[in-house]
Design goal:
Helix content: 25-40%
Number of strands: 10
Order of helices and strands: EHEHEEEHHEHEHEHEHEHHH
Oligomer: single chain
CATH superfamily: Glycoside hydrolase, family 3, N-terminal domain
CATH architecture: Alpha-Beta Barrel
Number of domains: 1
Radius of gyration: 19 Å
Number of helices: 11
CATH topology: TIM Barrel
Distance between the termini: 45 Å
CATH class: Alpha Beta
Shape: globular
């Protein structure tokens, strides 16, 4: 009988699994794993690593990666060097139709290549508006106008779905309007809920279009909830996201080891608060001691994640060389044209 997916998504350090990695992946509190650039040496190597991860838990685990394009693309050699969202978005004013086609091609290409090595999920697309001030979002943002951003990210999501991959909208309710980087500090956005309406629009629109998962921001919005950043806030998750916006998909916490999460307590406290706020998955990276603290605090009898399996990749897995011979892959490459960093 298959073991249910636990609510923790963790990482591993290298190109191969260690004995400790395998022990942690088999723990009932664990349901997924996120890969980074440090886990990648070649297509062949990462394919074997993914197989080993699958083998550690009878294929049950959800495997994810941050893979948007531009500077946020963990796998490079052998994969298409994808353009930034901004590079596509800046063409929208001149030719909206072609810009949407390129956004869909990016989503399709991204997902086809990742699914070829049996990755379930890319944490994309970014739904943050481009206010021109955020040090961490920058060219990851598609556009400054909500209408254009919605059109482009809907197209990206359609491309991902065509390749059997769910989409993850981030960083709810919007990280683009503040300069601070939540990897390094806790950003504070003092706008009122009414002023945040523009930022929330893309999330509302994509939820109506069936968005499968969302990642909240490690940002404090004191005019809405003065106590907790969005990812730990029942106001933002239970009340606004679940009830008012009607989202019933998977909610991933952002990385609980980021500095923006530190104000919410130790790692065990952060995971508890995120899960109590109705996050489905506590994502913890780059801190093995913190990961073990969370797993120990949850214990072997922790409640499984009731929605996590919904983001599992769909369709048959083919090797990358075979995917690159398909019409879909070649058409997507041609559509992106000179935006691809060959």
């Amino acid at each position: 009988m298959a073991m249910p997916l636990g609510p923790v998504m963790l990482d591993v350090e290298g190109h191969e699994l260690t004995a400790e990695d395998k022990e942690l992946l088999a723990h009932p509190a664990v349901g997924g794993l996120i890969l980074f650039a440090r886990n990648f040496d070649s297509v062949e190597q990462v394919t074997q690593l993914v197989k080993a991860i699958r083998g550690a838990r009878n294929g049950e685990l959800i495997i994810a990666v941050d893979h948007e394009g531009g500077r946020v693309q963990r796998f490079r050699e052998g994969f298409t060097r994808l353009p930034t969202a901004q590079a596509i978005g800046c063409q929208y004013a001149d030719d909206a139709k072609q810009s949407r086609e390129k956004a869909k091609a990016l989503g399709l290409l991204l997902a086809l290549e990742l699914r070829s090595i049996d990755i379930d999920l890319a944490f994309a697309p970014v739904l943050d508006l481009d206010y021109g001030c955020s040090s961490v979002i920058g060219d990851r943002a598609w556009h400054q106008d909500p209408t254009a951003l919605i059109a482009l990210t809907k197209a990206t999501m359609a491309g991902m779905r065509a390749a059997g991959m769910a989409a993850t909208g981030k960083h709810y309710p919007g990280h683009g309007g503040i300069e601070a980087d939540s990897h390094l500090e806790l950003p504070i956005d003092n706008r009122s809920f009414a002023e945040l309406h523009r930022d929330i629009q893309p999330f509302r629109a994509l939820i109506e279009d069936g968005l499968e998962s969302i990642m909240p921001a490690h940002v404090l919005y004191p005019q809405v909830d003065a106590e907790q950043p969005a990812g730990f806030s029942p106001v933002w998750t239970k009340q606004i996201l679940r009830k008012e916006l009607g989202f019933d998909g998977v909610v991933f916490s952002d990385d609980l080891s980021m500095a923006g999460a530190a104000a919410s307590g130790n790692h065990a406290d952060r995971a508890r608060l995120a899960l109590e706020a109705d996050c489905d998955v506590a994502l913890v990276c780059n801190d093995r001691a913190g990961t073990i603290e969370i797993i120990d605090s949850l214990g072997a009898a922790c409640a499984p994640s009731k929605r996590f399996a919904a983001v599992r990749g769909k369709g048959q897995v083919c090797d990358l060389a075979t995917i690159q011979q398909t019409q879909n892959w070649q058409t997507a490459r041609n559509t992106l044209g000179d935006l691809i960093d060959a």
